[in-house]
Task: structure prediction
Amino acid sequence: MSDSANPAAETAPESAPETLQEQVEEHEETRRKKFGTFGGVFTPTLLTILGVIMYLRLGWVMGNAGLVGGLLIILGAFAITTFTALSMSSITTNIRIGAGGAYAIVSQSLGLEIGGAVGIPRYISQALAVTMYIFGFREGWLWVFPDHNALLVDLAAFVLLWAIAYKSADLAIRVQYLIMVVIIGSLISIAIAAFQGSMTEPLTNAGLWGEFPGSPEHGFEGAGFWIVFAVFFPASTGIMAGANMSGDLKNPRHSIPKGTLAAIAVSLVVYVALAIWIVRSATPEELVSNYTVMIDKAFWGPAVLAGLLGATLSSALASIVGSARILQAMGEHKVVPAAGWLGKLNKAGEPRNSMLVTGGLIFGTLMLRDLNAVAPLITMFFLLTYAMLNAVMLIEQHLDLVSFRPLLRLPKWVPMLGLAGSLVAMFVIHPIFSLIAVAITVFFYYLLAHRRLPAPFGDVRSGLFVSLAEWAAQRVSEMPAATERAWKPNLLVPVEDPTELRGTFHFLRNLTYPQGTIKLLGLASGGELDRLRGRLPRLDRAFRTEGVFSAWTLVEAADFGTGLLAGVQTLRGTVFRPNILFLPVPTAPDPEREEDLGMIIRRTADHGLGVLLFCEHPKARLGRRQVINVWVRDQSPDWELSMELGDLDLSLLTGHKLRENWDGSLRIITCVEDEASVEEAEEYLESLVDLARMPHVRVHVHNGDFMTFAGRAPVADLNFFGLPDPVDFAFVRRMVETTHSTCVFVRDSGEENVLA
Result:
């Protein structure tokens, strides 16, 4: 017995390397063109963290919170980003990460749909961050040259940065080396001031734990601990700058963990040292009222000012380079429109097309002149990305798949704290923008989920769902066997020739949609086995396309009856087993097949399977798919309603499902020979309809002979009858001729209950 193979293999792109040797050769070919740990990861990450907030807002943070409160804010913010960086690093050591940084990590774990849902807003926010950095540079520039035109300063900075990034990532990194020298110079200027005695301010109670007076632009109305935390937190969110270069690294598995964690460690030391220095070098009043206090207290102020300008430029440059590569990676995977064009690289490996689009987006936002209204949203998308990275790590750890063998192993509390910290930080900083960010991400996921993106790599989603299914199966096995409330149609459909199912395809689909399932049991022998193995997957996909979960299994057997019985017996031991056996009746009398069907129906009574014996009218077929008749046998003289309805449960449940999906009507009919029982029969059926919660169902009771009435009963496209025991195939065909319609003969399994 062979089950369906993973269809993911069919969707792999033709350009993917076919052998491991080709992958190694491709890897070796590209290594020579790419960056190492220091230039590709450490430098952009460190320079992004040591940004404008360090120069212009660290003093204000310490003035509000005091030394102890300020250090708590710094350590809390860095704890969240460190946990996230550890999760990202661990995952990176387990996969062959491509371009796109966090987008690539999430996509390879949870699929392109979730990766794209995170990657698209992250790309946009990364581009918007460039505009914010340029505005920050402009403020510093105008502090030195107040007569310069603000728009021209912005445009000049943008053109310079974009031209460097467009030329090559190599040039951008060389420029960042220069900026790093400038920033180191600013820190040296501060260190000289400290050694020369600038730290003369005594630590009062207000200096240890601040009074949180607020900011000058708000008239010092006061600010709480979390408001100050929200102002500082974006300073620590530069940890993805190096990971964004994942597609340009010689060895991302080695460089991303080392470079990112080293940059976080160095920047944390710098922030703590600066916090202690600034608290001892200025009064709390100076700290909260003067954003440039660090420049004033340094040994040589111009060096710190140069560091401020350099920090904004380096952050902007890293964001331009990184965002273009995120867009290129999404284009390569067909996540975004114009994917073929955006996913292209030039001969030097530069994403020139994506850089053009990114430049246009940044230029457009520069023309808006003010992004303060959406600035918190940028931070929310960064934090949402961090939350997803930690969630991916948690999922991978809990699935405990053999494929999860990271070189950097973490205890489970690390991603758990990282996830919790990221979510808490989101809603502490701005609850409304947090909800907006989540809503935008969900919206993008909804769009991408309907596109069925072909992924060039495997992910762990199947493992996740298998684990959930296994957990659920274990819980189900421990519960009582009664499934009346949880019943849904799970059909077992024997298939010898898929062509024969064309006439019943929509009937089966409408019987099971949306929550039911179909198990296709292929029955073949000899040379037919390979042919059926090739055709069953197509039929399986057809049902799935129509919104019905389907699976297929192939049984090799000498004859129909033996093979079907073997399949039924085997599937009985599965947790999610079929509960209805669908059996089509041959259009012409076939004694051998009828004998097999009779044997199957008798034997399956012991296997908890209901039976639908389907006999199609050769001309009417399913008619207009509007009207359904369910026939109830004469129960005279005892028309008392009970929980045991015989074969009527499955007839009503399947009739109800078809009526809903056909948007048609349902009629319940009975024929009584005793006129005195007519009223009782009507009451019985009315009560049944009421208790079964089946509104808009018509009831019809006829007094007279059943066979005589069947030929002139209210016309229907489909008639349901109880299955006679033993099965009389002559009677079955006679009812099809008499009612001039397709008929279904039903036997309950005992697990159905229309009154449940």
In short: The first strand starts at residue 2 and ends at 3. Confidence is low (pLDDT under 50) at residues 1-21, 23-33. The longest helix spans residues 58-92.
